[in-house]
What does this fold into?
Amino acid sequence: MTMNIKCCECPLRQLGAFSKNTPEEIDFIQHFKLAESTHSAGKTIIYESKHNKELATILSGWAFRYRSLPNGKRQILNFLLPGDFIGLQEQMAVVSPHGVEAITDVTLCIFKRDELWKLYREHPALGYDITWIAAHEEHLVDENLLSVGQRPAKERIAMLLLNLYKRANSLGLVENDGLVFPITQQHIADALGLSLVHTNKTLRALQKIGLYQTSRGRLKLINPKALEQMASYYEIPLRDRPLI
Amino acid sequence: MTMNIKCCECPLRQLGAFSKNTPEEIDFIQHFKLAESTHSAGKTIIYESKHNKELATILSGWAFRYRSLPNGKRQILNFLLPGDFIGLQEQMAVVSPHGVEAITDVTLCIFKRDELWKLYREHPALGYDITWIAAHEEHLVDENLLSVGQRPAKERIAMLLLNLYKRANSLGLVENDGLVFPITQQHIADALGLSLVHTNKTLRALQKIGLYQTSRGRLKLINPKALEQMASYYEIPLRDRPLI
DNA sequence: CGACTAGTTGAGCCGATTCAACCCCAGTGG
DNA sequence: CCACTGGGGTTGAATCGGCTCAACTAGTCG
It folds into this structure.
């Protein structure tokens, strides 16, 4: 449990992807921050149905939220990237309604959960931001539900690749040769409600017609336009994205 | 546009399903309320991709949120019952990311959207409540995504019937002989990512083994335990539910 | 050098889809 | 008053997308 990064020097804030806060707000967030913690790849960060009231923002790394069934099947609800907030649903339930697992090594900014109420009281604008964050995460789940419920496998996968690519891009994670892509085929299968085998075959088919390529754990979209067309991609314009 | 019901006499607040507010908060909500509006069954309340910043709570009636694809397929994201709030996602996007359609005749309490910010500033506890509401709606979508992604048709339908039944029950809509059930098989199909024909056959199969029955638009669960077992139903205990 | 993880590919099967009738009932209008 | 119409529900038949089973490869790590 260390505290290496000051909020006013937060690398995510430099990015331009997030809305600006006043110095007072940054001060408060700094005070709100309890510590940093790291979780290594593959480890569970929050357990399903366990008492857990952790509040945190992902500072670096990839993770996902999931729910699982007694028979072992698991649904990935959405992927979590830097800047994503963890712990809102935990606030409104007695136990955590979902699990969170690290894909890569993950660094979290942990907040003082007892002071969430103070945040709403003293900085209503930040309270508003937290609502924004909750509504935005719901939007991501909505999008995925639309895919899983109504799109065939090819389109689901095209959609997922596009969404992850665009999110990573807005965080400056995309370079010329694509981005570091730590998602396994099993993750994709679990997120899209497909079997691993079918996910593999569909991915290969998309690769074969030259829509994307992977090498050494990097993903590059060769023909994003074709992917967008395949998935009937439609980007919903959002307002300024807050960061807590 | 009338204003028949005072917030302090709101029939939903009498129910015991919602947390109590202070008199000052009720006063504010009363002031926050602009009017009531009614939408008749089958009409669109909010159009997809249209500019719309309406804030409202459902006072009576059933509705649903949905997204649709260019090919005409439609995914119902979640059903909306009295007490559910409409308009949070609209706040964080430029256009509405989803549509809302009335199933029965619906009465809404419309709020002054320009005063949402005032709500956060003057009544941070209500701001906190709105976050709760957003997180809770996300929870509903999570649950449905788990079903659509991982459960076979029979279990999906069992789950949906249980969830709607329990929600209606907490709102006092269930009587001895069941509840008024305005959902068509097409709604169920669209919510669960199933075809209409398969939904019908699965529904009939569940009815045949005596899990539920319908007559004159009323639904009665004959054997809720068996439904729960079939769906691996697990109720996540929630904290006090707010009402704006 | 096993042992384990991630990915790949073929074969056969099954749950869910599409197509196509058909029924019932509540409006509606001549 | 009754024929017509349209929405919701029901059912069988044929098809197919995606599933399971199974076997195999390549890379990595203690």
